[in-house]
Amino acid sequence: MTQFASHVIVLLFMNAKLEVLSRVFGYAAFRPGQEILIDALLDGRDAIAVLPTGAGKSVCYQIPALMTNGVTYVISPLVSLMHDQVGALRQCGVAAAYLNSTLTPGQYRKAIANAAQGMYKIIYIAPERLNTDSFRSLIAAQPPTLLAVDEAHCVSQWGHDFRPSYLEIRPFLETLPVRPTVAAFTATATQKVRGDIGELLGLRDPIRYTASFDRPNLFFDVKRVRGKADRDKALLSEIADANGRSGIIYCATRRNVDHVFEMLTDLGYPAARYHAGLPDDERRRAQDQFLLDERPILAATNAFGMGINKSNVSFVIHYNMPGDLESYYQEAGRAGRDGTPARCVLLFAAEDIFTQRGLIESSENGVKSPDDLRLSRERLERMIAYCTGSRCLRGKILRYFDEASPDACGNCGCCAAARESVDATDFARTAFSLIKATGGFFSVGTLARLLKGGTAPRTGEKYRGAVGFGAYEHWTLRRVDAWVNALADNLYLLTESEPYHRVLLTQQALEVLNGVECHIDIPAEHTTEHPESVSRIQTRKSSVNKQAPHGVEGAGLSRTSFGGTGGGTSAYSEELFERLRALRQSIAKDQKMPAYIVFSNATLYDMCEKAPVTIEQFLSVSGVGEHKARLYGHRFLEEIRAYSKNRSN
User: Fold this and answer.
1) Can you tell me the distance from the alpha carbon of 137 to that of 579, in angstroms, rounded to the nearest whole number?
2) How many angstroms separate the Cα of 40 from the Cα of each of 127, 195, 312, 408?
3) pTM value?
4) What CATH number has the domain spanning 218-419?
5) List of residues 6+ apart from 552 with CB closer than 8 A
6) CA dist 196 to 167, 184, 437, Å?
7) What is the CATH number of domain 568-648?
8) Which of 274, 445, 594, 626 could form a disulfide with 304 if both were Cys (CB 3.0 to 4.6 A apart)?
9) Extended strands (E) in 217-296
10) Which fold has domain 16-210?
């Protein structure tokens, strides 16, 4: 074969991939990493791919599935993920199915029979069904040409969601007469987990691709709170700023889920709840209401979420600190999947540390080996480090996943201008010295009074003359109290209340006293004498019910704050967006499917920017493939034409 002929074949091959991408999925170009992985799988090579949420993992195996003969099987851990993926594929005109426990016996037998006859190109299956007789019969009739393992971190005990059933994948592969190409995909995996994925799945010389873990459209923030009342105020402030948009509130316990749900519903917010203590039908109803945007706010434990592909989630709030940074990033990453701006906020209090330590040691989590306990404790320390200090939050996340990062990202709470810091070194040393000299047998409030030079009823004159007593008598008591609490918020101080009040110095506070750490900065917002009023969050039901279900603006972000739409959004396109969004919701309701499966918010935004009036122009909108254009094109074009006509009159 001549060099020219080889070049022509390569060009045809490249055009074929792009043609499928455009015709089926409606995108004009591949995202970073997709083409590399698609080429490897089409060449019959195994792959390990670590791509962040929203980076388009599914396209990496769906395009090879559509370009080759035979059937692609996708191992997936949750029925919600399978349902979502199959629904999206069918909307694109792809013959797909799933085999899981949600099917009745009759539906399952029919699906198996259809699959055996070659009616599907892509079939999703739970790992627990690999060794069932019915699936073995299907494999004999339709052997896999490609096996994709989604959420592949589940195979590793060092991953954040270990699933023992994933360990059955390699033995299953070893029983097949002809081994298929195997591809493993995950959104979050440390270097250790990546190694486990290759070994435990028995991958053969896999191509390894790890994309940047950075999600530029996500704004990360940690808000330090003290007590449940303060936590609730911070939560309600975020909800009010979200302006009716869809979001998830993660809580560490079922009790907190119930509390948040009841508080929000009492205030008139359209909220639902999800945790393992609820009946199955209530959990299913809550998930459906959330996905269908009937109740766009969901309070949940970490039992909810993996595999949820809801693209219009605009905020994720963690009511409590999670136990590890990997889980946090996986959960926070459920926001902004369509690339539009979203907020990820963690409400943190020192008490969260004790809660998570208790969960680690709890017998409810099963018997743990010393290595498991050590690993869990190490993960918790990394999570605590994320919540404390003043360094860039995005940088902490990226370094956790062994990725280089700039000193400041400019798009997180610690980098924001409002987070200017003040030098608290001298104040901290004085406070620490006073605690060390007296033993700290008092409350944080009493510590502030002692630094001010006053006494408390229970301490009397006992500590007068102690090192640091009265050192800040020229300050107001409110200011001293704010600085003391700032030290506690940044984990230089811990408190005990049983059997008596006591203020304790943490290791980093002792290092300051011993000269190991010589400088302390505290976020300025934590040292103010007059905290910002939160009266605006005391929202009445009547005012909440007037909010639009999904405001285009919200969560403190605008369309122009994230690149990709070419020039932001005009008032004209914002108004058009609302009309198109209403049409999308009507179609989704009629077909009993989530609105984002019809078209994502990002697709509607692009539709507003391009304002197509012909079917050819409609096909140029990002996310509009040929099948969706046939299904919905005329209705959206009618809406755009009608709006354009009204605007010109």
Assistant:
1) 49
2) 24, 19, 31, 35
3) 0.66
4) 3.40.50.300
5) 559, 569, 574, 577, 578
6) 11, 11, 51
7) 1.10.150.80
8) 274
9) 218-224, 246-250, 271-274
10) Rossmann fold (3.40.50)
